[in-house]
Amino acid sequence: MKFGGSSVADAACMRQVAGLVREALGPASPAPLVVLSAMGKTTNGLFQAARAAEIGDLPTALDQLKQLIQDHRLAADGLFEDGVPEDLDRAVTDAFGQIELLLRGVALLRELSPRSQDAIASFGEQLSTRIFAAFLQNQGLDTTWVDARSVMRTDSTFGEGQPNAEAIRELARTNMSPLLGAGRIVVTQGYVGSTEEGLTTTLGRGGSDYSAALFGAALQAAEVQIWTDVEGVLTCDPRIVPGALPIPELSFAEAAELAAFGAKVLHPATIQPAVEARIPVTVRSTQKPQGRFTTITGEVHTGRSVTALASRGPITVLTVSSSRMLAQSGFLARLFEVFGRLNISVDLVATAEVSVSLTVEADALLKPLLKELSTFATVQIAEDRAIVAIVGERLKHTPGLGSRVFGALPDINIEMISMGANEINLSIVIKRGHERETLCRLHTALIESTDQGGAA
Ligand code: ASP
Ligand code: MG
Hints:
Elements: E1 2-3, H1 11-24, E2 33-36, H2 42-54, H3 58-79, H4 86-109, H5 114-138, E3 143-145, H6 165-175, E4 185-189, E5 192-194, E6 200-202, H7 208-219, E7 224-228, E8 249-251, H8 252-260, H9 268-276, E9 281-285, E10 294-297, E11 308-321, H10 331-341, E12 346-351, E13 355-361, H11 367-373, E14 378-391, H12 401-408, E15 416-419, E16 425-431, H13 435-448
Parallel strand pairs: 1-2, 1-7, 2-4, 3-4, 7-9, 8-10
Antiparallel strand pairs: 5-6, 9-10, 11-13, 11-14, 12-13, 14-16, 15-16
Helix pairs in contact: 1-3, 2-3, 2-4, 2-5, 3-4, 3-5, 4-5, 6-7, 7-9, 8-9, 12-13
The protein binds aspartic acid and magnesium ion.
């Protein structure tokens, strides 16, 4: 069970999470491993303090620290009516003492290496898990706090430690499994890891989901639950389409497409370890725990023909034409070699006989690219466009999908179309001014009205 920063932001949130963990102690999940992020904005606060120290502004760094101390004290006070237990109090004081030492060291040296940064940032999770574990113990629950560094082995890429899955499996077997038993809870930190030499690392910002998937895979968990503030992954961005619905089942490939095209789903790379180990990952709502949720698995065979919509903009469309391209082999190779060398990433591609259309990020540096391309082709540029991606495993088995897409957009000009090579993503390019309207209409036409798969 992984809970993010907003789920453990204060005492009230932590109480709610404790309730969920207690409920999980039923027969369905007799031995939960609880993986927590740092409370609320703690990681940001630690980063800010570290940066202030780096430029020698120790007063600002210590002010920032004071604020964090206050937040954590307040949370602890709110959880223990009869006073904060002595050992928790000591652990919190200790942790803040160590952060202060580190900040003073950074300020003295005016140097903040990724390694020092990780050492400082890791305290956010140390603190949230200390407080939470003590609270569970105080509630009479059989709870053990485990230092994630005793299991989450990474290489020494500080700031973005690369996990060593094999070592983690071994360490989980010796340092975690024996503590997990029926009715027993283990609490540990997301985001934090350690090198073989025992140096503290982190998995990179937002790394707690990744931690949960890695721990889950190592322990062969029955399920990895990502608890968050939405009812699972939705069919579209609810700020654009208020009628967006939670998706019951999502395949890993669909999740990857949606993330690539701008949906705020879990980053699929973060749950890959669980998917590879064939462990279902569920995205659940802390506010509505009994409500709907999304299960992400390796493969999904049921559901609507269109699973979800996502969009991304602004993007730029380049149409590259060359009369010399006609009947000439190797043109595409020559074309993309230029993009590759200039490090410009291409998303969609559509080819015609004498031209190729492709999309690039709006902020791509086009000048050097255009200069090179102009030696063998002409290039038309269309800016301020958006890609709308229609994603679903069953797209390829859905006849008439195209007519439904066009039918919903009789007055919106579709400038480019691309069916992803994996056949689960039909993308269209439109003017960015039409992005919202396009999403709303497609959501009505493809998701709300027809429910062919019957997955309500
Ligand atoms: N606390 C870390 C962060 O804010 C990790 C996480 O929340 O997943 O980036
Ligand atoms: Mg987070």
